C-alpha cells in the first residue's frame, strides 16, 4: 500500500510539474521549429550552390549532355527510393536521428563530389543522395511539434527556406565558382553540412513527439520494423481520403513539373535568354516563393478550410495552364509566374498538411517520405516525357496539358466527397 501511495504521489508530482512547465515547453517547441527552419534553409542553399556548378564540373570531366542527363536521373532515382525509407527511419528512430542522418549524408555527398576527378567517381558521389532529405526531416520535426490547426501555416513557412536557398545558393555559388574555381562551392557545402549536423545534434531534442504519441510509435514499429515495405505504403493509402488527395498532389503538379525540367532548354531556345538572365529569372522565382509562402499561405490556411484551398490551388493551376499555352515572351512568363508560384506552394503545403493529419502520428514520417518522392519521380520520368512534348508539340503543349489535367481534377474535387478526418492517436 505504501508503495502504491508513493507511486500515486510521484505521478501527481509529475503531472503538476508538467502543468507548470507547459509555457516553457511551448517556448522550447518554438525554438526547435526555428532551428529546423535554419537547417532546411542552409541545406537548400548548399544544394543549390552545388547544382549551379555541377554542369560545368561534369563538362570539365568530359561528360556530354546525354551523360549529364544520366547523372541527373541517377540522383532522381536515389531520392525517389530514399524518400520513403527516410520517412520510415524517422518514424522508428525519431525526427532528430533522421535529420542528423540527412545532414551527415550531405557531408559525405559533398566530400565525394570534391574528390571526383573522373566520371565514375562523379556518379559514385550521388549515392549518399538516397538519405539527403533535409526538407522532409524539417517537416517531420514541425509535424511533431505543432498542433493540427497550426500545421499548415508552419509547413508553409518552409517555403521561405526554399526561397532563401534558391537566391543565396545560386548567387553565392556563381560568385565562388567564378572567383575561386568550380570545386570551391562544393568545399563550402561540405563545411556547411558538417555545421548543420552539429546544429541538429546540439539543438534538436532527442524526443520531438508528445509522450502519448511516442508510446504509440514504439508499439507500431515493433509490429513492422522493416524500413521499406510495399505493404506499409498500401496500408497508409487505405486511410480515408489519403489515396484521393495523393492522386491530386501527383497529377496537379505533373505538367508544370515537366515544364520546369525542360526550362533550361526552353529559356535558351524559346525565350532566348543568356545564362545570367536565366539566373535573374530563378532569383525572381525565389523572391515570389518567399513572399507567397511567408505571407499568403499561412494567412489563408487560418481563414479557409483545407478542402477549399485545395480546390483553389487546382483551379488556379488550370488558369496557369491557359496562360502558358498563350504566352510568347519571357515577360508573359514573369506575369504567369505569380499565380504559378501561388498554386504550386498552396498545393504542396495543403496536401502535406492533409495527408499527415489523415494517418496516425506514428506514420507521419512515412507519409512525408512518400510525399517527398513525388518530385524525384517527376525528375526521373520528366526528361523523356518533357523532351517528347517539347520536340513534337512545342511549349504550348505543356500549357494545354496543365489546363486539361487540372480542369478534370477540379471537377473531381467538386463532385467527390473526400473524407478529411484528423486521425487521433
TrEMBL record:
User: Which ranges are annotated Polar residues under compositional bias?
Assistant: 1-11
Q: Which Gene3D superfamilies match?
A: MFS general substrate transporter like domains
* Membrane topology, as annotated: Multi-pass membrane protein
What are the protein's UniProt keywords?
Cell membrane, Membrane, Transmembrane, Transmembrane helix
The residues that cross the membrane are: 35-53, 65-86, 98-123, 154-176, 183-204, 246-266, 278-296, 308-326, 333-351, 393-414
Fetch the Pfam families from UniProt: MFS_1
Task: Name all Major facilitator superfamily (MFS) profile domain ranges.
Answer: 29-420
A GO CC term attached to the entry: apical plasma membrane
* Localisation: Apical cell membrane
Primary location class = membrane
GO MF terms, alphabetically ordered: transmembrane transporter activity
InterPro entries registered for this protein in UniProt: MFS, MFS_dom, MFS_trans_sf, Tet-R_TetA/multi-R_MdtG-like
In terms of PROSITE patterns, this protein maps to:
MFS
In residue numbers, the region (Disordered) covers 1-21
Q: What does this protein do?
A: May act as a transporter of organic cations based on a proton efflux antiport mechanism. May play a role in the transport of chloroquine and quinidine-related compounds in kidney. Plays a role in the regulation of lipid metabolism.
This protein is called what?
A: Organic cation transporter-like protein 2
Amino acid at each position: 500500500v505504501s508503495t502504491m501511495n508513493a507511486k500515486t504521489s510521484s505521478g501527481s508530482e509529475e503531472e503538476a510539474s508538467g502543468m507548470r512547465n507547459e509555457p516553457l515547453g511551448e517556448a522550447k517547441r518554438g525554438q526547435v521549429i526555428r532551428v529546423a527552419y535554419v537547417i532546411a534553409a542552409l541545406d537548400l542553399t548548399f544544394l543549390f550552390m552545388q547544382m549551379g556548378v555541377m554542369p560545368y564540373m561534369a563538362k570539365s570531366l568530359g561528360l556530354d549532355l546525354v551523360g549529364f542527363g544520366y547523372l541527373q536521373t541517377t540522383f532522381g532515382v536515389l531520392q525517389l527510393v530514399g524518400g520513403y525509407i527516410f520517412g520510415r527511419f524517422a518514424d522508428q528512430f525519431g525526427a532528430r536521428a533522421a535529420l542528423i542522418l540527412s545532414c551527415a549524408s550531405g557531408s559525405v555527398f559533398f566530400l565525394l563530389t570534391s574528390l571526383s576527378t573522373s566520371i565514375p567517381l562523379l556518379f559514385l558521389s550521388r549515392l549518399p543522395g538516397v538519405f539527403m532529405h533535409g526538407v522532409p526531416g524539417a517537416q517531420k520535426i514541425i509535424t511533431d511539434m505543432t498542433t493540427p490547426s497550426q500545421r499548415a501555416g508552419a509547413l508553409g513557412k518552409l517555403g521561405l527556406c526554399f526561397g532563401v536557398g534558391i537566391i543565396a545558393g545560386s548567387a553565392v555559388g556563381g560568385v565562388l565558382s567564378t572567383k575561386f574555381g568550380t570545386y570551391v562551392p562544393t568545399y563550402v557545402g561540405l563545411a556547411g553540412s558538417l555545421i548543420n549536423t552539429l546544429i541538429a545534434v546540439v539543438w534538436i531534442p532527442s524526443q520531438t513527439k508528445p509522450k502519448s504519441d511516442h508510446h504509440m510509435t514504439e508499439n507500431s514499429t515493433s509490429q513492422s520494423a522493416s524500413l521499406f515495405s510495399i505493404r506499409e505504403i498500401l496500408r497508409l493509402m487505405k486511410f480515408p481520403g489519403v489515396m484521393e488527395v495523393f492522386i491530386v498532389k501527383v497529377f496537379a503538379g505533373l505538367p508544370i513539373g515537366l515544364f520546369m525540367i525542360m526550362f533550361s532548354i526552353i529559356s535558351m531556345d524559346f525565350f532566348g535568354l543568356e545564362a545570367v538572365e536565366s539566373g535573374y529569372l530563378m532569383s525572381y522565382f525565389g523572391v515570389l516563393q518567399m513572399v507567397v509562402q511567408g505571407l499568403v499561405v499561412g494567412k489563408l490556411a487560418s481563414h479557409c478550410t483545407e478542402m477549399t484551398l485545395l480546390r483553389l490551388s487546382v483551379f488556379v493551376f488550370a488558369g496557369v495552364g491557359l496562360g502558358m499555352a498563350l504566352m510568347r515572351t519571357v515577360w508573359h512568363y514573369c506575369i504567369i509566374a505569380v499565380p504559378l508560384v501561388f498554386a504550386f506552394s498552396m498545393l504542396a503545403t495543403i496536401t502535406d498538411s492533409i495527408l499527415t493529419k489523415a494517418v496516425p502520428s506514428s506514420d507521419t514520417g512515412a507519409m512525408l517520405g512518400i510525399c517527398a518522392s513525388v518530385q524525384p519521380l517527376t525528375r526521373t520520368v520528366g526528361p523523356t516525357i518533357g523532351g517528347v512534348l517539347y520536340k513534337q508539340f512545342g511549349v504550348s503543349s505543356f500549357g494545354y496539358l496543365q489546363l486539361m489535367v487540372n480542369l478534370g481534377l477540379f471537377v473531381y474535387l467538386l463532385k467527390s466527397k473526400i473524407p478529411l478526418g484528423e486521425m487521433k492517436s
